[in-house]
């Protein structure tokens, strides 16, 4: 990415909030307008959306129940050990 202006910096600082729809409408409009006019920031936006999509897809599988049971049992064992040490 080669853009370095204050508008780019401001847009990129809030990019994740924008992608996650965690900004108010005015801020979203401001970032969208900037992205629409800045190829470098648009490229960064596209990349981050792609990464988020890929991570989301890879996290959609649920662990098998026997594995979940073993993990929960291990967590409980550690909790009991910690409580006994206090």
TrEMBL record:
Residues 8-41 form the Putative zinc-finger domain. This is Mycothiol system anti-sigma-R factor. It comes from Aeromicrobium phragmitis. The gene is rsrA.
């Amino acid at each position: 990415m080669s853009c370095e202006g204050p508008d780019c910096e401001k847009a990129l600082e809030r990019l994740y909030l924008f992608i996650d729809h965690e900004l108010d409408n005015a801020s979203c409009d401001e970032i969208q307008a900037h992205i629409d006019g800045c190829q470098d920031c648009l490229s960064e936006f596209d990349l981050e959306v792609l990464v988020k999509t890929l991570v989301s897809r890879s996290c959609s599988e649920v662990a098998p129940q026997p594995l979940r049971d073993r993990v929960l049992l291990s967590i409980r064992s550690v909790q009991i050990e910690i409580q006994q040490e206090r």
